[in-house]
Amino acid sequence: MSILHTVNKSPFEKNNLESCLRYVKSGSAVLLIEDGIYAALKNTCFEKEMATAMKEVNFYCLAPDMKARGFSESKIMDGIKMVDYAGFVDLTIEYDKVQAWL
Amino acid sequence: MKFIIQVNKGPYQHQTADSAYQFISAALAKGHEVLRVFFYHDGVNNGTRLTAPPQDDRNVVHRWSALAAEHDLDLVICVAAAQRRGILDEREMNRLDKDAHNLAPGFRISGLGQLIEGVVLSDRLVVFGD
Lengths: 102, 130
Prior knowledge:
The structure holds 2 protein chains of 2 kinds.
Chain A: E1 3-7, H1 16-23, E2 29-32, H2 47-54, E3 58-62, H3 63-68, E4 80-83, H4 85-94, E5 97-101
Chain B: E1 2-7, H1 16-29, E2 33-39, H2 60-71, E3 75-78, H3 79-85, H4 90-95, E4 107-110, H5 113-121, E5 124-128
Parallel strand pairs in B: 1-2, 1-5, 2-3, 3-4
Helix pairs in contact in B: 1-2
């Protein structure tokens, strides 16, 4: 069973992302929303952990939340796909369940 | 696809209410059904009609009521969470012997069973909170 995990906290503030990455299974996906988008930025201390996870898990980032925080797509790590809210809806259907890491 | 949405935070407190609203709008625009929106914990504060934000700010509560009217949405406020936070409809006002009620149009107060039933009847539960 594939799960879409949503992470809405910055990894610099809370450990939601790290908790999520401990449980996420190969073939599932992580969607970074709200302050979760900070994990998608290039050259942070989380880049290595993200890159390792990306080998087995699909990563997405909610573009409106990224833009609201002043980041353009060029600031985002390669391999993370950008989605809008319509894309968010599509992802919830593509995967069997949605798990919010609040 | 049928969705049920859970909202755990109040308006003007966290991005939760905005994220949930945007997600629901996108789902409806794609032709999906939103069976119910369940407001839980501090999320019940989305249902007070007494908020009066500045005119140049979005009115989160009015926005829910308008969306409910347009799409016939079922906006459910958790009764136990609402009692703790002073969100009352007329029936609860009388039952609890209070002097006012404040539930916004389009909302109704009910129990946690509505969340469970909604999950059973829907294809996806999507939770927004802090």
